[in-house]
Amino acid sequence: MNSDLQNLINRVRSALLSRNQNTIRGLARAFRQLDSYDRNNKVDRDEFFIVLKENGVSLTKQEQFVLHQFFDRNNEGTVDFDEFLCVIRGELNEQRKAIVLKAFQKFDPHNTGFVEIRDLRGVYNCDNHPKIKTGQMTEEQVFVEFLQNFCDNSKDGKIQLKEWIDYYSAVSVSIQNDDHFEQVIKIAWGV
């Protein structure tokens, strides 16, 4: 990836993060809503830039062209939004991935590749959530909001390992320090 493209992607990432930490996670929901017709995980060029603009990303026509050309690798006129989200949020480094996997494995001792939502209830510790501390939300409301962020595509009450990692990859973007990220996971899941 050339430096101009990397700078453009960094600018998009910064614009999204400047809004709030949930913006990148919310993009997945917005893209999926647009993709409700054929469920191919792709959006067309116009839809792609509408979602970005609605989420605070202003791009010139030239920047749109460059970004679209990068993400439309097979020249179909579409963007695979899972691929886009992976590039924007980046991958978990080894330390972060290890603690995320440890938390997942706590609920998947038989290595099925998924955890059941009912197994998480009562274990997820949201006492330190800012909205609970201020009285804006109850623990139940925070838990329900937390579950909605996993994008349970199959709606089967199970969180797949990929969904778990994708969620924490998005969370990871807003936490600069590896040790702090690790502490967040440890507190939330008691690992």
List the uncertain runs: none
Q: Which descriptor suits the 3D outline?
A: globular
- This entry's quaternary arrangement is single chain
Derived structural class: mainly alpha
Compute the number of strand runs: 4
Compressed to H and E, one letter per element, the order equals HHEHHEHHEHHHEHH
Proportion of strand residues: 5-15%
Helix content: 55-70%
Strand order of the largest sheet: 1-2
Radius of gyration: 18 Å
Mean pLDDT: 82
Number of helices: 11
Major β-sheet, in short? Answer: 2 strands, antiparallel
Distance between the termini: 37 Å
Please provide a written account of the structure.
With 191 residues, this protein is mainly alpha-helical. Helices cover 61% and strands 6% of the residues. It contains eleven helices and four strands, in the order H-H-E-H-H-E-H-H-E-H-H-H-E-H-H. The chain has helices at residues 3-19, 23-34, 45-54, 61-71, 81-89, 94-107, 117-120, 130-133, 139-148, 161-173, 178-189, and strands at residues 42-44, 78-80, 114-116, 158-160. It is globular and about 50 Å long. The N and C termini lie far apart (37 Å).
What does the secondary structure layout of this molecule look like, with pairings?
Blueprint lengths: L2 H17 L3 H12 L7 E3 H10 L6 H11 L6 E3 H9 L4 H14 L6 E3 H4 L9 H4 L5 H10 L9 E3 H13 L4 H12 L2
Antiparallel strand pairs: 1-2, 3-4
Helix pairs in contact: 2-3, 2-5, 6-10, 6-11
